[in-house]
Amino acid sequence: MTDVSIAVRLKAPDPAAMTALSTLKRINPDTCPERLERFEHWRFIRPLDGKRTVERIVSHFHDIVNPNKQSWNFSGGSGSIHSGDEELVWTEVLVTDKVDSISENWTDILIRNKYEVEKVMYSVLWRLGYASGTSMAEARERTLALTVTSYRDHGLLANPISQNINLLDQA
Amino acid sequence: MTSRPLVAVLQFPGSNCEYETASVVRESGMDAAIYRWNQCKELSDSDPDAFILPGGFSFQDRVRAGAVAAKEEIMDLVFNKAQSGKPVLGICNGAQILAESGLVPGWENGRIESALAANHIHGRSGYLSRWVFLRVKKRALRISPWLQMIGSNPIPVPIAHAEGRFVFAEKDSHRVRECTALAYCDENGTETSDYPVNPNGSFMNLAGIMNREGNVLAMMPHPERAFWMWQIPPWIPGTWGDRRTSMNHDPAMAASKGPGALFFRSLANHFMIP
Amino acid sequence: MDLRDKLKKVIRERNLAMTLPEAEKLAGYVGRMPTPLELHLFDTMWSEHCSYKSSKPVLKQLPTQASNVVVGPGEDAGIVRFCTFDGVDWDLVVAHESHNHPSQVLPVEGAATGIGGIVRDVYCMGAKVTGSLDLLRFGDPTGVSGEGARAICRGVVEGIWKYGNALGVPNLGGDTRFHEGYDDNCLVNVVALGFVRHDRIAHSFVPEEAHTEQYVLILAGKPTDDTGFGGATFASADLEDKTEKGAVQVADPFLKRVLSEANRNVLDLLFEKEIPFGFKDLGAGGIACVTSELAAHGGLGIHVDLDKVPISIQGLPPEVIACAETQERYGLAVPESIAQEILDIYNISFELPRLFPGGGASIIGSFTKEPVYRVVHRGIEVAGAPINCITEGIVYEREWKPSPVPLTEPDNRHVDPPSDLKKMLLSLDGASRSPIWSYYDSEVQGTTHFRPGEADACVTVPIKGCKAGLAVSGDGNPWFGQLEPFLAGAHAVGEAVRNVVATGAVPIAATDCLNYGNPEKPDVFWQFRRGVEGIAHACRNLGLESEGEHPLPIVSGNVSFYNQSSSGGSIPPSPIVAVFGRIDDFTRATDLSLKTPGNIIILVGPREDEFGGSLYYRSCLEHSGGKVPLFRGELEYEMARFVLDCTEAGISQSVHDISEGGLALAAVEMALATRKDARRGVILDKGFKDPVFLYSETPGYLIEMSPEDWEGISAKPDFASPIGKVTDNFSISSNNWKLNLSEVLEEYTTLLDRIIWREELSE
Fold this sequence. Notes:
- The complex is a heterotrimer.
- By secondary structure, chain A is an alpha+beta fold.
- Chain A has 4 helices and 6 strands, in the order βαβαββαβαβ.
- The radius of gyration of chain A is 16 Å and the shape is elongated.
- Chain B is an alpha/beta fold.
- Chain B has one domain: Rossmann fold (3-Layer(aba) Sandwich), CATH 3.40.50.
- Chain C has 3 domains: about 45 residues, no CATH class; about 350 residues, CATH 3.30.1330.10; about 190 residues, Alpha-Beta Complex (Phosphoribosyl-aminoimidazole Synthetase, Chain A, domain 2).
- The longest helix of chain C is centred in the first third of the chain and has 22 residues.
- The relative contact order of chain C is 0.13.
- Classes of the chains: A alpha+beta, B alpha/beta, C alpha+beta.
- Chains in contact: A-B, A-C, B-C.
- At the B-C interface, helix 1, strand 6 and helix 6 of B face helix 8, helix 10, strand 14 and helix 25 of C.
């Protein structure tokens, strides 16, 4: 049994992504990405029937995905989320609260409701797209700098004191 | 002193407690003025004596509560004034902005050293409105201009937040004690980490932290909502509860001030307003 | 193809809700085949939601006039006089709406935009919004569709807190009921209230002055997109296909808060300069409705240029730009000469274009003496209709057929008070609502005196320095509705009035939201008629402010039809009423917590054997019963008068109305509300094991007072008598039974939390 992750996005423009991008443009005009996308990311730890278990969960709990406003897909690392402008150079960073009630509560609910999964972990997945021509190494470096908030004018997407930051590998 | 001290209440896009906060400052014998986020020049020109960052949802808590507002230009000025020793209070969303600005705990100037993370409660996530009890930590009582009049007895105040859990880096945990200002406790003053006495899982039951000098205070509870006796719920236990209950047959008590007034009274006292 | 066939085709192709005769009527107005924009505009204007075409003839029965009414139903919100303080006259502004269908499909966004819309209705009268309530009806979370009901409940509460809390408007509670009749169709009714200076009321039409000076139309807020295209018609159609359209709008409380601050600056400027203006929020029908109505109601025409509308999606057809229901937008009719100054407030001072890329304020039209509604897009006229047809309504006389429910009674009425009370307290309708309220911010603005649950109604002190308190409560009992639609209407008013009166406040106005099934079905339309008759009857009996001279006026409201499942089953008839009261000195307001051991409990209202829909029958006997408590108008009035007199005399120490679970449960709730370090209980005088005495839901009140104060009442009404004493023991008892309340407190407090949020369902 391996873990299965899904990425969930709003069908309408995501206001948090919009605000984040306009903030980055203002504070880091030289290094900010062309586009920024935001997903809710759910990682299911060792679901018994793999993707089938996860599909059952997703179709049952509209709190996780409400098909009237959100779309989702399996996210097995990078390159699996087909969205946005493929001309851009994309990086993905996963931000997870070190201690998180949402993950704990959903783990409890799923287990109580007899879904065979060990645990679920909730994160926010940010996808940053840079102008074509940017090297992957530079894109990754910029993403990390824009993510890790160390000073007031330095970084935005995650506070490393309370959150884990995971720059996903490229395919 | 002839003129009353001026307290600047900052309005960020999405703040929503600025009016009542300014109002209780005035009720405490000081002047208050509200400055919009882009009125940097007006704020600088008026040279306020103290600053309050009120509660609300600046930028709707997008990305993280306080994270975007911390990067507004007006915070440069607040940052400098805080460094120069001017009293600065962040309430709820204001506290989140102070944490995301690196103004508290302020071990290294401007570095982000704390977080106000999502509440951690068994079986529950999201926003929580609730009355809690607080006590002031000893050193804070001595040095912070916002706390001197509170004394050592526990006081009831309400919280209303989704992200109010103070977190520090593990390597810093040994020095957290020196920045502690307010802790959650029960009506007898006893601290415990159990919900609901500690309503959000905050480290060391912290409800408020300050910088080393004590002039900058970041607190999650809302003192402006406990400013008058009549704002206190009828079921509050303890000595404040006794006073609140006596309001039922003593009209004078209804007009008296509540525990939250002590924060603003402390500031007035700091400025030597009688 | 002749016109008729063309119209038929376009109705089908554009999925319009209008009927062919309606389309023909429109074609008659414009004298040709209507344009797509005209079709969509009138499709919205003539939808059930906007036109009240089925309900209008029935709604005429409601009493809407009284001496204190400033603005009755018709504008975005109703207004009544509230108080005079410091030389200023303050008016109360109230509005009440439903957002049922959108919340069923998208609970979070549906509930959020529900608040957004109702709050805008109060703002646009020029008021500061000082409170909102949510009246929620969900399916049975433990029933066959429990999974859906629980997720919808969680989502709606999340929408309320994520949006409502951010707005900075205190949530003053409301009520929540669970009934399997809402499994496929939840109800989310929202109420907003606010205050405005009497001389600063804004109106939703272009002012008289526009006949002599050039006025323009400013659109302020979010850039227009395609969300909610067809929203109003969506609200009026059956919930058959959930994927049908993106009719639910995306709410943005952040932008709304900033926009409200900017609006306040704009309105202050206009009032200070004494410039007349028109102001209206954009709701159903978007730009098309707001522009045409602002003009039509002011007797002018308007020329709208859609190319001036800021949009966030390129290439939208003109009918979408004109009719989309993008949230967080307002329309403002002002003289051209002041327009730039106003644009600067929105765009420069409050930086709307930075805070919401593409947003801001722009001039999109100008008012014309030529009485025509004209819209231009890329230089082409896309609508051109005589302005007076905008205000032409349509009316249908619907058929109705009485369909009373046969009365049944249980075979035997077993009574075991400790176990009965436990069952009722730990039922879905009896359990504490605090898990829901704990998500709401009830204290922002710093004006709240009684939060939800502390007294029968929330009490706030909204005008700075002034002692006048506002009490508000909203009610409606689906179990009554299911059995007797007339009494459901009457008791919705009665219960809300009692809740307000229990705090010591005098009811001054009411609003209603009438939630029913398909009005084209004669039995449903009969339920609706009976509900309205019941509300009207109760209002005529409960004109407490004018001492019976005028009725309690209904000043705002809404009708929501087509609440039904895909299989066609209607919801229980659900008239929901909010009542607003004033207490001149809020420090005298009474909460419901028992205070002093040795005090006596006065029962106000004799008990009758009428258990239809009662909590006792439902929870303890698993029976719905038949005979719903009668509404005794004169007695209700006299009882309320007595309770108000006691509060005014300062002798009531706590007051609670008797409703679900009867007298015994009311006494228990008064004990449960006590301080944890000063617990109180009740001992009933006699060893009653009489279900009528203990559990009957005949309306009434319990009042705690000292024995001396009771003795001091010279003319004791015959409907009031002492029935028990306050003790310092946290229990309810009589000489032959006792329930220790510490046994149930925890479970009572957390029941909804466990079932709804933690999904802890018993096996």
